[in-house]
Amino acid sequence: MRRVSRIAVASVATAALAVTVSACGSSSSSQSAGGGDKNLGLALAYDVGGKGDQSFNDAATAGMDKADQEFGYKSTAVEPQDGESDADKVQRLETLAKQGYNPVIGVGFAYAPAVKAAAAKFPKTTFGIVDDNQIQASNVTDLVFHEEQASYLAGVAAAKTTKTNTVGFVGGVDVPLIHKFEAGFKQGVADTKKGVTVKSQYLTQTAAEGGFSSPDKGENAANGQIDAGADVVYAAAGLSGQGVIKAASEHKIWAIGVDSDQYKQDALAKYKDSILTSAMKDVAGAVYNLAKSVKDGKPQTGEVRASLATGGVSLSDSNPVFKNNADLQAAIKKAEEGIKNGSIKVKDS
Prior knowledge:
The protein is α/β, with parallel strands linked by helices. About 40% of the residues lie in helices and about 20% in strands. It has a six-stranded parallel sheet with strand order 2-1-3-4-5-11, with helices on both faces. A six-stranded mixed sheet has the order 7-6-8-9-10-12, sandwiched between helices. Helix 6 (about 175-190) links the parallel strand 6 and strand 7. The longest helix is centred in the middle third of the chain and has 17 residues, at about 175-190.
C-alpha cells in the first residue's frame, strides 16, 4: 500500500517538485553545469515504500539529516509516484540538479537508468545511485554493499536460535539484489547447524507489484512460513518487512530485521521484543560520505562498496536477549572473523 506523494524534508523545493517534478529550473546562471555556485544541499529521490519504511529509505534519510546538521544544508527528499516511468525519474533528477542540489541520489537500483541519463546532462553535478554498480561515469558514485555478509550473520543467528529447526526468508522482489540476502542467509544457516530447513518466499516479481511496499503481503507470507513451523523469519522486503515483524510478534516467534536497526524504530516499538537482530547496511553512512565528499571538493566517483571489514554492513545487538546470549555471540564473532580473514567465502547468489 502506497502513500500519496509528499516532500519528506522541509526544503526550498517547490511543491511541484514532489508531485509532478515538472516545469521550472532554478535561478542558477548555469543550469547545465548543475546549479551554479550555491549548493542547496543533497537531494534524495526515494525508492518504493518512501519515507517511513523503517528500513532502507529511512536509513538514507538519516544520512541526509546528518549532512544537513553538519553542513547547514537544506536538503530535500522526494517520494516516488505510483506507476511512474524511467522518464518520470529522469525528469525528477534533472529538476533537482537544476535547482542546485548536489549530490543528487537515487535511492534504489530502479533509479539506475535515470541516474545515467541525468548525469550525462549535468556533468558538474555529482549523482549517486544506491544498490547499483552498472553506471560508469566520472560524476556518478555507485553506492553498493556486501549484503550477503550481514545476511550470513543473520543466518548464524537464526540457526543458533531456532528450536523447530525451520526458519524463513521473505524477499520483497525476486531480483538479483534480494537473492544476495537469501544466499548469505541460507549459507549462514547451513554452516552453523545441519538439518535446519530454510523456507523462502518472494512477495512479487516486480517492485511495481508492491513487493517492497506492502506490509500485508509480508504478513501473509510470514504467517504461511510460521504455520509451516518456522520460528525465526528474516525479511529483506523494505516496508513489507513490517508485516513480517508484526506476524512474528503475534505468533511469539523471532523476526530478523533488515537495513536499519529495526529494534530501535519508533514505528515498530510495540513489536521490538520479537526483533532478535537486524542485518544492517550503512546506507546512512554512504549518503553522508558522498555529501561530505562533494562539500570537500573531492566528490567520490565510481564504485564504493561497503563490507563487514569496512563496517558498512553488520548485525545489530540492541536486543538484550541477543546481546547477552554468550553462545550466540561467540558464534557470530567466529563467523565475522572468518568472513574478514577470507576463510569464509559468502555466496551472493
